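Box 3.1 A note on notation
Throughout this textbook, protein chains are presented in two layers. The first layer is the amino acid sequence; the second is a C-alpha cell string describing backbone geometry. Keep the layers aligned when reading.
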Amino acid sequence: MPTTAQLDKRLKVVEADVAALKSQMSLVQSQLASAQTAIMSLGVGLTQLQNQVSQLQVEVAQIPALAARLDKVEADIVTMFSMLNLPATPGGNIPIPTGPPATAEGFTVFTPHATTQIIYVDATGGNDVTGAAMLPSNPAIGADPFNPVTPGSLTRFQTVAGALAELATLPNNSAHWILFLKGETWNEDFGKLARNGVDADNRLLFSSWDDGGGGPPPRFVKQISSGNSNDNVFWSVDGGVGPGANFVALVDLDVIGNGNGSLMALTRGRSSYILFEACKLHNAEINRNGTVTTANGAGTTLIDSAATFQTWNVHVGDVVENLTDGSAAIVRSINSQTQITHDALAGGAENDWDSADSYVIHSAINRGNGFLFQNNSGNPVTHHVTVFRCIVYDNGMGTLCSTTDDLTFDQCVYDHNGAFGASQDVEIRTHNKYLSVDRNRTTVQNCISLRASGFCQKLRGPWTDNFAINNCYGRGRNAIDVICQGGPGIEDEINTNGAVQGNAIFGPPIVGSGMDGIDINATHFLTVTDNVLFRTVGFGGNAIAIRIMSQRGRTATGPWTDNENITITNNRIYEWEGDGIGFVRASSVPAPYDTVTINNNDIDMPAITANRVINHQEPLSVGTGLTLSGNRYWSDNATSLWFSIESTDGDYTFWSGSVSEG
C-alpha cells in the first residue's frame, strides 16, 4: 500500500497534468473560436466565389465561339499575307500569284471553246508581219495553251496594236484568247475595246503565256495621259458611244499607270459579265526634274525659269530634293510656274540652292484610278462584274464605282490608295474603294484593305470576312472604314438582308486620325455581326467604333434621314480610342431611327475620359424601337463616365434605367 508521501507526490503529478490539460483545452477553445470565425468568413467568401465561378462559367462558355472567330480571322490573314509579302513602305513591288493556275488554288480554269482562236504576243520574239491567230489544235500549242510545247513555232505578234488588229479580223461573240508572254513589258494601251465572248463559261480572254522561262505577269505601261474619264484609260469599254463588252476576262496582267486617268474602266453601261482576276493595278510615282536657274542661299525658294510647276500639278506636301547636295524639304506653296516655296532644306552638304543644282520633285499624292466603273443617267447599267484576287495599290483611288449592279470583290488586296502628306485634303475622293451611288448591289468578301488615305470602303452591300488595317492613313478629317448607306429612294432594295459580318477592323497609326470603324448611315435592313474592332490607344483621334448616323439626302419624294431595322450583335470592340457605340447627328439634322437592336456585344474601352461605352448624343425620344440585351461592358474610366445620354453622363444603373436594357 502506497505511503502518504507517495500519494502526495502522485497527486501533485496529476494536478500538474490537469493544469496542462486545462491550458491545452483553453488553447483548443481559442482555436475553435478562430475556426468558427474563419468558417463564417469562408461562407461569405464562398458565396462570392460561387458568384464569380458562375460568371466565369458564362464567359468560358463564350470562349470557343470567340476563339473560332479569331482563328478564322488569323487564318485568313496568314493565307493572304503568305501570298503577298507586302512591303514595309509604300510603293513596293508586291508579287501576286501567277495565273491562271490549277483549280486547287481557286483560280478560274479556262479551256478553249469551239470558237476559240489564240493570239500569242511576244515583245521580244514576235513579229506583227508574220504573226497570225492559231487554232488550239495546232501541234505547237499542245494540251495547255498557257504553256505551249513548242514556243518557237508559234506565230507570235510583237505589239499590242498588232494583236488587237488581228483580233479585229476575227468573228465577234467568240471565246478568243490574246496571251502575252510573261516577263515582257509593253508601252502600249489596249484603248477602247468593245468585244464579246460566248457566255460566262467561255469568255474573250486577255491573259499570259509562259515559254518555259517563267517570269512575272506581263506588264503594260499606260501611255494616254489626257482626256476625260472615258478616254484617258489603259483599257475601257464606253457604252455611251457604242456597244458594250460582254463575257470578257482579263487575267494575270500587271498594269502601271502614269498618274492620269484610269487603268481599267467600264463606263456608261451596256457591259456585263466582266472578270478581272489576278491582276495588279498601280500608278507610278510622278517625279518632276529640273535645274535651278537662280541661287537661293536661304534654301527655302526654288526658282527654275524652264519649269512649269503649276502645269506639272506640283502640290503642297510634295517633296523637293536637291540632287546635287543631297538635301530635301516639303513644298509649302506654288508661287508661279517657275517658283515654289518650301521648308528649309535639310540633310545635305550645303542645304541651299546654287545655280545649276539639279532637283527632283516627288509627288505626295497618288493620282489616277485603278478601276473605274461609272455610269451616267439614261444609260443601261453595267452588271455582273467580278474583281477576284487582284492587287490595287498606289492609286489616287483604288476603285471608283457608280451604278454597277452585282459587283463582287473577292480575295483582293487594296493598299495605299489616296492622297498623303500635307496635301491630303486637296482631293476628297482618295480611298481604297469608293462605291458611291444608286442601285449598287455590291459584295466585298475575304479582302484585305490597308493604308488608304481615306475610306477603306464606302459601301452599299454585304461586307464579310475582310481584314482592314491602318486606313484613314494620315487624313486630317474624320473618315471611316465602312459606310453602309442607303441610296436615294431605294434603301430597301440596296440593303435588304445586308450584312457587315466577320470582319477584323484595326485602327490607324496616325496622330489625330479620326477614323470611325463601322458607320451606319441612313441605312435600312442591315445586320452588323461577329466583327472585331480594335484600335490601339495613343493616337489622339476621337472616333466611334460603331456609329449610327443619319443625314439629309434626296429621293424622288423628299429627304431621307433615318436608320431602320438595324441589328448590331456579337461584336467585339476593344481599346477603341473614341466611343464604343455612338448615336450621332450630321450637322443640325436630327438622327432618327426605327427598330435598332443591340445585343450580345463585348465593349471594352480604355481609360480616356472623353470616351463612352455608349454615347447617345440626342434625346432618346429621337428614335423608336431601341432594344438592348446581353451586352457586356467595361471601361477603365470611372463608372460614372461609362454612358452618356444627351451629354449627361452616368453609370450602368443610369443607362439601363433610361433604355430598359435587359
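The longest helix spans residues 4-84. The chain has a mean pLDDT of 77.
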